[in-house]
């Protein structure tokens, strides 16, 4: 791809949706990523959700966008920390995701999030994305958070 | 937080925006994350962008959402690979992000993406997010992609 | 710590063991890390080992050295890929490790390594370190490798 | 490789070096990895070292062992935190490494470690490994540590 085409790929301004996107309310990224999530199972230290891959979360290859997967790791990690009774989910320190196979539109996936550790100050959650139909792993991520004590700063 | 509250945090259905979100077109996640990105500098193996943090990409703590940051690492990594003349950006293998400080609404940030390696089959890009005003690092990520040869499968 | 002390911490030359270390044979790092590993279970895509934490692998805090843990993730990942019948374990693309709790000298730990994906070109293995006595997770890592086709370069 | 061969690859006991390795003193892993490191430059928040790749740190492919690289990321990260005047380097939370090209025996490499953030409780250091001769990146890692306050537990 020549540099002019890369520029067009990156700069989305002036597209059909410019006005719609620019007028979106604060924190709209969360419903955009999470809408359609259903909890299948919830307990202390574990949250299992289902999601049917919606068209809006596809990438140009028509599989679940890697950025959406990472955002789901972020959100699922916070949900698990909430189940431990923490008054806050703290601040993110690190997120990583391995992408293992593609998930297609309409495919039902399971998002299984487990606390690996919830200490006084550091919590780590692992998140597995699996195809419900094939049982194949789609992605695996980990989310590390710092849980600040009331009066301290990270 | 009790489990019923966590459930409400995760399941967004029935909210004010349910219809709006459910009717979004395919691949809408990209303009939502990318709208407003401007290229400051582009060359072979390097893309430097600016973004003024928009309200829609905030988290509940009112700083740039960690999932949005990760999605930007995903997208910036692909843009850099395009600048190397690769006909495709391949498929994501791994993304990681360290979160270093918060970025607030209206803050202008620089997103500096560099190819660490673009080989025949594996490419790795690093992405630095910096506050233009303070020069402080906001986040650092890496994006690893597999560049499939025409006839092969990952 | 003042900079002169940091310099002394980093530069080990002139210590008691300088001659011993400098005369070590090629590839000695592997037996140093692996000596004492026992296989508890091995099958296609899975290798479970035991290790009693030896004094030589401790850090200055007297728990299993984070570098040794990372080296074990490296080695365990390769072993799992061998079980899949691959003629080579390929080259490492990425290793990550989350450290969850300390392992002490004489403690018996289980190292459970599972293939998350072994494709034609990319393999990903997860590795869990658990205390046999307490069942507590000590660390969790992932190892991504590229499996080159006979005639290609990464 | 058949499973019996994988078992032999993993279980090093009974080898020529068994006695030597088993009688190594406590914390010997550090001089084994660090012997030969020279500091080229040291300042608050930055440590640049040189290392000539020694035979003992090679892998079976005769390049610098990925486990040794990860151990160096661990150690370099701690050294940088020491330069900030922290009384302790804390405990490791996460280490990650991307492997970009091989380093051969006798090759002189530069290990450049920079503090990305040293806060009250969380520190993050990036580490670049570069070939001095070719200028090529060999690896890039990040090391996240938790710096416990005197009276608190992670």
UniProtKB/TrEMBL annotation, chains A, B, C, D:
PANTHER family: F19P19.27 PROTEIN, THIOESTERASE SUPERFAMILY MEMBER-RELATED. One of its GO terms (biological process) is lipid metabolic process. It is found in: Cytoplasm, Cytoskeleton, Spindle; Cytoplasm, Cytosol; Mitochondrion; Nucleus. Keywords: Acetylation, Cytoplasm, Cytoskeleton, Hydrolase, Lipid metabolism, Mitochondrion, Nucleus. One of its GO terms (cellular component) is spindle. This is Acyl-coenzyme A thioesterase 13. Belongs to the thioesterase PaaI family. Gene3D superfamilies: Hotdog Thioesterase. One of its GO terms (molecular function) is fatty acyl-CoA hydrolase activity. It catalyses: a fatty acyl-CoA + H2O = a fatty acid + CoA + H(+). Residues 62-136 form the Thioesterase domain. It comes from the Eukaryota. SUPFAM superfamilies: Thioesterase/thiol ester dehydrase-isomerase (SSF54637). It comes from Erythranthe guttata. NCBIfam families: unchar_dom_1. Pfam families: 4HBT. Homotetramer. Interacts with PCTP. InterPro entries: ACOT13, HotDog_dom_sf, PAAI_dom, Thioestr_dom. Catalyzes the hydrolysis of acyl-CoAs into free fatty acids and coenzyme A (CoASH), regulating their respective intracellular levels. Has acyl-CoA thioesterase activity towards medium (C12) and long-chain (C18) fatty acyl-CoA substrates. Can also hydrolyze 3-hydroxyphenylacetyl-CoA and 3,4-dihydroxyphenylacetyl-CoA (in vitro). May play a role in controlling adaptive thermogenesis.
